[in-house]
C-alpha cells in the first residue's frame, strides 16, 4: 500500500491564502489519484512544521528546510500553474 503523502502549505498567517492554495492542491491530487494529508502553517512555523512532510508549497519565503519547496504563487496568479502542478505531482510520486 502506498504511504499517504504529506504537504505543508505555508503563508504569512496560515489563513486565507493557504486555504485557497490547499483547496486547489486537493483538486489536483484527486485528478491524479494521490492521497495526501495537507496541513497549513505560518511562515514563522515552517521550519518546525516541515519535519515530517514530503513537500512544502509556499506563498512566501520559507526559512531553510530539508524538504522541497515549491512556490504557491501560481495558484493565486494563474501564471505558470501548469509547470507548478506538474512539479508537485512529480515530487509526490518520487517521495
Proportion of residues in β-strands: 15-25%
Q: pLDDT average, as an integer?
A: 94
Beta-strand segment tally = 4
Between the first and last Cα atoms, what is the distance in angstroms? 14 Å
Query: Order of strands across the biggest sheet?
Result: 2-1-3-4
Question: Structural class from helices and strands?
Answer: alpha/beta
Number of helices: 4
Write the layout of secondary structure elements.
Elements: E1 5-11, H1 16-31, E2 36-42, H2 46-49, E3 55-58, E4 69-71, H3 73-77, H4 81-94
Parallel strand pairs: 1-2, 1-3, 3-4
Question: What features would you highlight for this structure?
Answer:
95 residues, four-stranded parallel β-sheet, 4 strands, alpha/beta, single chain, 22% strand
Task: Characterize this entry briefly.
The protein is built from four helices and four strands, in the order βαβαββαα. It has 95 residues and is of the alpha/beta class. The model has no long low-confidence stretch (mean pLDDT 94).
Amino acid at each position: 500500500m502506498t504511504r499517504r503523502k504529506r504537504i505543508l502549505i505555508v503563508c504569512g498567517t496560515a489563513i486565507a491564502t493557504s486555504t485557497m492554495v490547499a483547496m486547489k492542491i486537493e483538486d489536483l491530487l484527486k485528478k491524479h489519484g494521490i492521497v495526501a494529508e495537507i496541513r497549513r502553517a505560518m511562515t514563522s512555523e515552517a521550519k518546525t512544521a516541515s519535519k515530517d512532510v514530503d513537500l512544502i508549497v509556499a506563498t512566501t519565503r520559507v526559512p531553510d528546510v530539508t524538504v522541497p519547496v515549491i512556490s504557491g504563487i501560481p495558484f493565486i496568479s494563474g501564471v505558470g500553474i501548469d509547470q507548478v502542478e506538474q512539479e508537485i505531482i512529480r515530487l509526490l510520486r518520487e517521495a
